[in-house]
């Protein structure tokens, strides 16, 4: 594990700090996952093909991108397979998911927009009414890694809002199956419409519709540069949550911070392969403790090699004279 500690009295002019900043600004995080491919052109080709040829285009692109052989009948995951994934899920994991889902549900209920009382003027009543969209689809990555938080933070808010039709789409593994953890999460939340589709053709199908897949009103969920570009190009034909950038975090902390928590936050971003995590602190002791804690936690993670790449190439711990300098570095 090669997480650098940089000592900088003036971080905004320090060559090592500027090198980290400039690499991130140069979009190396995005370039690392796209290589020399013209992302916009590749995505546009897939969308146009799905719009023209429907299911067959989705099937062929999924075979090309994810090496999974599908038919129109197997695009959708059967309920029996979802039930099987639920039955075989680790009970401790299921309990954790239930607790997290309930916490999210309660918070979403708390912040849900409520219509104000009608305004009465001259015998007239002026009012506004909030209604949920009819159909939402959540894209859940599942090739490199599975993030249960993606499922919970996209589907539970839709349920609280009262969306009638909630769809999940996740890329198939090479044997054609969706990751069992994803299916267990869908089953636990009561989502029954799940599709095994490669990312961009799947999003295109959900936006324009095919013979098998009915279009939705809105697509949500994270993804790589291709997913972000697909959502950008499809926006207008379908609503989206946002066009997310690379996974990165900047943490400003002093000596009162817990090194294990800071390390966990950094690893949570670096694991996105690639991801970036930068800690800026006036505490040499915290800097050293965090680096040691990152190494200790990294050793127990399944995707340690991918995470180590993000830590080595796109991350750093920067020690500065005081908190004012740390905050200034964050603005730089």
UniProtKB/TrEMBL annotation:
Q: Name one Pfam family in it.
A: Histidinol_dh
Give Gene Ontology CC terms. Answer: cytosol
MF annotations from Gene Ontology:
histidinol dehydrogenase activity; metal ion binding; NAD binding
Cofactor(s) essential for the protein: Zn(2+)
Q: Which GO terms describe its biological process?
A: L-histidine biosynthetic process
For this UniProt record, give its keywords in alphabetical order, as a comma-separated list. Metal-binding, Oxidoreductase, Zinc
Oxidoreductase among keywords:
yes
Supply the InterPro entries for this chain.
Ald_DH/histidinol_DH, Histidinol_DH_CS, Hstdl_DH
Protein's UniProt keywords contain Metal-binding = yes
What family classification does the UniProt entry report for this protein? Answer: Belongs to the histidinol dehydrogenase family.
Q: What is this protein called?
A: Histidinol dehydrogenase
Question: Which species does the entry assign this protein to?
Answer: marine sediment metagenome
């Amino acid at each position: 594990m090669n997480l650098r500690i940089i000592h900088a009295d003036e971080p905004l002019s320090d060559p090592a700090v500027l090198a980290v900043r400039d690499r991130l600004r140069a979009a190396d995080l995005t370039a690392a996952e796209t290589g020399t491919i013209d992302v916009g052109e590749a995505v546009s080709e897939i969308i146009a093909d799905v719009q023209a040829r429907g299911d067959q285009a989705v099937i062929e692109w999924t075979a090309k991108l994810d090496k999974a052989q599908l038919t129109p009948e197997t695009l959708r995951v059967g309920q029996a397979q979802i039930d099987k994934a639920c039955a075989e899920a680790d009970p401790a994991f299921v309990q954790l998911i239930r607790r997290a889902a309930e916490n999210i549900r309660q918070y979403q209920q708390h912040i849900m927009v409520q219509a104000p009382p009608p305004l009465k003027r001259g015998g007239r009543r002026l009012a506004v009414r909030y209604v949920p969209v009819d159909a939402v689809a959540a894209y859940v990555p599942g090739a490199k890694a599975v993030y249960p938080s993606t499922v919970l933070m996209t589907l539970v808010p839709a349920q609280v809002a009262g969306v009638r039709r909630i769809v999940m789409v996740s890329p198939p593994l090479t044997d054609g199956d969706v990751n069992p953890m994803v299916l267990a999460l869908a089953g636990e939340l009561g989502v029954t419409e799940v599709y095994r589709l490669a990312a961009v053709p799947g999003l295109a199908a959900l936006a324009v519709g095919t013979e098998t897949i009915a279009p939705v009103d809105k697509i949500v969920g994270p993804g790589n540069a291709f997913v972000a570009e697909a959502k950008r190009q499809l926006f207008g034909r379908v609503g989206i949550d946002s066009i997310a950038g690379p996974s990165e975090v900047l943490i400003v902390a002093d000596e009162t911070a817990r090194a294990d928590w800071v390390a966990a936050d950094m690893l949570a971003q670096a694991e996105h392969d690639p991801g970036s995590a930068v800690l800026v602190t006036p505490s040499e002791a915290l800097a050293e403790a965090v680096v040691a804690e990152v190494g200790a936690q990294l050793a127990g993670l399944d995707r340690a090699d991918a995470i180590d790449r993000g830590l080595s190439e796109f991350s750093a711990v920067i020690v500065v004279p005081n908190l004012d300098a740390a905050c200034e570095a964050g603005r730089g």
